[in-house]
Specification:
By secondary structure, the chain is mainly alpha-helical. The protein is built from seven helices and four strands, in the order αββαββααααα. Strand 3 and strand 4 form a beta hairpin.
Length: about 260
């Protein structure tokens, strides 16, 4: 019998305080007894015993099996049986995720609603008892009922670290792209500088050739003047030749 629910009343009419170690020992004996009975129907993943005292939750036990066939056999096997003089009522539970139905504040020791909380207050069994029960499966499961403990925070931290890693990788790739674009721009600038220098060099060459040609003509003109005139007659420009030819044609037509 649960020593808390069956504690004698004190002078003030309230239940007397029960030794916590005695309560925990009674609970772990009940936990092991219940596990050994239910494991006959299949592998158990979680065994949750409610510590609530509200009428709709007091005495509730939730068992999660590895598969639905095992759960069906357990419901059929324990239905109508008795435990400690009380009849067992077994049914399938709509609860699929214990984390959503358990009380986080109870696990943290801060729930101010006490045993009348509408969320499950799952009383934890000691690690030695859980190791003795779940260790028989040999798959590393420990049957922990700390659904809001550090395990969840660890997964969240891992997700956060993974996101930070993605951001760092994105920054690295972005920097690489930026460096590559910068290198491409620098290469393009070098090409522009090279083309500009080539054009400038060509213009200087053209200017030098023009100056050389003009100087050559000046020297030739001065030399021809010293010799008494231009040795070769200057060729008429194209416009002058066309005008002269037109004049000849008019004179020929007039004759």
């Amino acid at each position: 019998m649960n020593p808390v629910l069956n504690a004698p009343l004190g002078p003030d009419g309230l239940p007397l305080q029960v030794d916590p170690q005695r309560v925990q020992q009674f609970f772990e004996d009940f936990y092991e007894d219940l596990f050994l009975e239910l494991t006959q129907y299949g592998q158990i993943e979680s065994l949750c015993v409610c510590d609530n005292i509200a009428d709709h939750m007091v005495g509730n036990v939730y068992v999660k099996f590895r598969d639905e066939e095992s759960a069906a056999k357990a419901v059929k096997g324990v239905q109508g049986r008795y435990y400690a003089g009380k009849q067992i009522t077994a049914e399938f539970s709509p609860v699929m995720d214990f984390k959503e139905s358990t009380c986080r504040q109870y696990e943290e020791g801060t729930c101010n609603r006490g045993g009348y909380c509408n969320f499950m207050h799952v009383r934890p069994a000691g690690p030695e008892v859980r190791a003795q029960c779940f260790g028989r499966y040999g798959d590393g499961s420990d049957g922990s009922t700390q659904f809001h403990g550090r395990r969840g925070y660890g997964r969240r931290d891992n997700y956060r670290d993974r996101d930070y890693g993605r951001r760092d990788n994105y920054r690295d790739r972005r920097d690489n792209y930026r460096d590559r674009d910068y290198g491409r721009d620098r290469g393009r600038d070098r090409d522009y500088d090279r083309e500009y220098r080539r054009r400038d060099r060509d213009e200087r060459d053209y200017d030098r050739d023009d100056r050389h040609y003009d100087g050559y003509n000046d020297r030739r003109g001065r030399r021809d003047d010293r010799r008494g005139g231009d040795r070769s007659p200057r060729r008429d420009a194209s416009a002058e030749r066309r005008a002269r030819i037109a004049q000849w044609n008019q004179e020929a037509q007039g004759q």
